[in-house]
Structures are given as structure tokens and as C-alpha cells.
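Input C-alpha cells:
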């Protein structure tokens, strides 16, 4: 009975270690911005992602050139705005913008978890909406500021500029800045809350889980250290409950449970754990951008969360090995004890036989 009870308590110790590790990961990912910021910044500097940014910018500004612009100048206007998309892609502030946007999405998701409306809908806790309209707005605004400064300072060599200035009697750079860039500034302002510039992230580990349940898990994750402490106490309790010769096996049971949890957790948190999708009806540029984001985000996310299951797996291997070594030591000690007892019994039998022989001879 004590052996069975000790094994059950040891298994509980391993399970508590798994819960503590999962809680630490959830707490880090939801209550602290560092993990998500690190993933986002790594994705934002990915060459393929940056190469897809101009396609998004082209999609949102290609029709912003005023219709009243004369035909010959329309092409010049398009040539003028062509560097805009690349400037946004090369802007180092875009990386910080992505980091801030991801953090805003994290906080918005936490607030959504507290919303009771639809909280019991299966799978409602697995989706996170990440808007990138604010990033596009800030990037385009910064790039437009650079282009406007270049125009007003005549740093652009526009086709036929000198002739046009002679005929019109006005500075072409100032005209282009006032006529072409003003609507682009307005367009950029509209992008912040654009529903077309967003992506939906789905966490497969939460598939089928409602928001109310996820909310309870997130709240409980802040107390993961209590589970870690309880795991240690349960392991000590299993050692105290186990009879002599079974303590090593009890420790091995705890290690095996922790090891299994680490291996399963590592498999569930691999590169395929997160999926990004573009909104329905998204433009080709947005769809291609989201696809590149997904390809870059999957390995980045897996690398960011990998230390948690890896640590648990390593701990499981150590405890399992220690338990097996202790079990072998107990087995060796028990065998040695039996040998000593047999020798002692043999010596006693020989002594008794000699005593009986002496009595008979007398």
C-alpha cells in the first residue's frame, strides 16, 4: 500500500513540475512583453518579410494620386512615389513599430479574454488579431516627410522640371509636395484603423478551447512558482512514504512524468504551433506579406518558447537517472544485506552443531 501511494505522490510531483513549466511559459508570454517583442523584432528584420513590405505599401497608395493631375505628370508622380515603399521597408523605426503593435495586440487579447460575451464559444481563446495599420501609418508618414523635404529642397530631378517651372512660373517641387503628398498623408492617417491591414494568429495548442477557460489559465499562470514548490514537496513526500528499497523507483516515476511532459510540450510548441492568416478579401500585397510573416514567425516563435520544454525535459532526465541509480543502489544494498544475513545464519548453525557435538562426546 505504501509503495502504491508513494508512486502516486511521485507522479503528482512530476505533473506539478509540468504545470509549473507551462505556467511559467504562459505567464511570460501573456503578462510580460519581452517574449513577444523578441519574436516580433526577429520577424521584422527578416529579409523576406522586409522584401514583402513594398507590396503592401503599393496596394494602399497606388490609387491615391489625385485624378486632376495631368496625364504627362501622372507617370512622373508614380515615379516620384515609387521610392516610398522601399523607404518604409528600410526604415529602422518600423522594427520598433512592429514591437509596439505586437504588444498592443497582446494587451487587447488579454482584455478580450475578460469579455463575457461569447466567452464559452469553443476555440474562441485561440485567435489573436494583430493589426499592422499603425506600423504602415508611421512608416509611410516618416517616408513622406523625407520625400517632401527632398521635393521642397529640389533634390529630385523630375523630367521637364525646368521647362515646367518656366511655363507655370512656380516651383515644381513645392507643387508636387502640396498636390501629390497631401492626399497621401490623409491616406496614411486612415491606415491606422484599417481592417484590411491586419492578420489573425491562431495558436493550435488552444484550438477548441473557449475564452473563459483560457482566461482562468492565464490568471493562474501568475502563480506558477507555487506549483514548482508543491512539486518539490510532493517528491519529498514520495520519498518519505516509499518503503525501503522502493525510494529510487518513486523518484524515477516523478522523473518519467516530467520527462514525458517536456517531450509532449516540445512537440506541441514546434514551428507549426502558430498560423497567421490574412483577412478575407485581402489585396495580393497584403496576402503575400502575411504569408512571409508566417514563414518567419513560426521558427522564431518555436525558438523563443523552446527553453521551457527543454528545461523540463532535461530536469526529467536528471531526476529519472537519479531515481534509477538510487534504485540500483537500494537493490545492491538489499542483496548485500541478504548475503550478510545468510553468512550470519550459517555461522550460527555451525556454532550450534559444534556445541551439540561437544555435549554428545561428554
Amino acid at each position: 500500500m505504501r509503495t502504491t501511494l508513494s508512486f502516486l505522490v511521485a507522479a503528482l510531483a512530476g505533473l506539478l513540475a509540468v504545470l509549473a513549466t507551462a505556467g511559467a511559459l504562459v505567464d511570460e508570454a501573456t503578462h510580460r512583453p519581452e517574449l513577444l517583442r523578441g519574436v516580433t523584432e526577429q520577424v521584422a528584420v527578416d529579409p523576406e518579410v522586409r522584401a514583402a513590405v513594398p507590396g503592401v505599401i503599393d496596394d494602399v497608395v497606388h490609387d491615391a494620386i489625385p485624378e486632376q493631375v495631368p496625364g504627362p505628370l501622372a507617370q512622373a508622380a508614380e515615379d516620384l512615389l515609387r521610392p516610398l515603399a522601399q523607404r518604409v521597408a528600410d526604415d529602422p523605426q518600423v522594427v520598433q513599430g512592429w514591437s509596439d503593435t505586437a504588444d498592443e495586440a497582446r494587451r487587447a487579447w488579454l482584455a478580450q479574454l475578460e469579455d463575457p460575451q461569447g466567452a464559452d464559444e469553443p476555440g474562441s481563446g485561440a485567435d489573436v488579431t494583430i493589426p499592422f495599420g499603425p506600423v504602415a501609418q508611421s512608416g509611410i508618414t516618416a517616408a513622406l516627410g523625407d520625400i517632401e523635404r527632398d521635393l521642397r529642397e529640389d533634390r529630385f530631378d523630375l523630367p521637364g522640371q525646368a521647362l515646367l517651372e518656366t511655363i507655370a512660373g512656380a516651383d515644381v517641387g513645392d507643387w508636387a509636395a502640396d498636390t501629390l503628398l497631401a492626399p497621401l498623408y490623409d491616406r496614411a492617417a486612415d491606415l491606422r484603423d484599417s481592417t484590411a491591414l491586419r492578420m489573425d494568429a491562431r495558436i493550435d495548442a488552444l484550438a477548441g478551447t473557449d475564452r473563459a477557460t483560457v482566461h482562468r489559465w492565464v490568471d493562474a499562470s501568475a502563480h506558477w512558482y507555487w506549483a514548482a514548490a508543491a512539486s518539490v514537496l510532493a517528491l519529498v513526500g514520495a520519498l518519505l512514504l516509499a518503503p525501503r528499497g522502493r525510494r529510487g523507483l518513486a523518484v524515477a516515476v516523478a522523473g518519467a512524468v516530467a520527462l514525458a511532459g517536456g517531450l509532449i510540450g516540445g512537440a506541441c510548441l514546434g514551428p507549426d504551433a502558430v498560423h497567421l492568416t490574412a483577412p478575407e478579401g485581402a489585396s495580393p500585397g497584403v496576402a503575400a506579406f502575411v504569408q512571409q510573416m508566417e514563414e518567419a514567425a513560426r521558427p522564431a516563435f518555436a525558438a523563443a518558447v523552446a527553453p521551457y520544454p527543454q528545461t523540463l525535459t532535461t530536469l526529467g532526465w536528471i531526476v529519472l537517472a537519479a531515481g534509477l541509480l538510487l534504485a540500483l543502489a537500494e537493490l545492491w544494498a538489499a542483496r548485500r544485506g541478504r548475503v550478510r544475513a545468510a553468512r550470519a545464519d550459517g555461522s550460527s548453525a555451525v556454532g550450534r552443531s559444534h556445541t551439540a557435538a561437544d555435549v554428545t562426546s561428554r
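The mean pLDDT is 79. The beta strands are 127-131, 198-203, 274-277.
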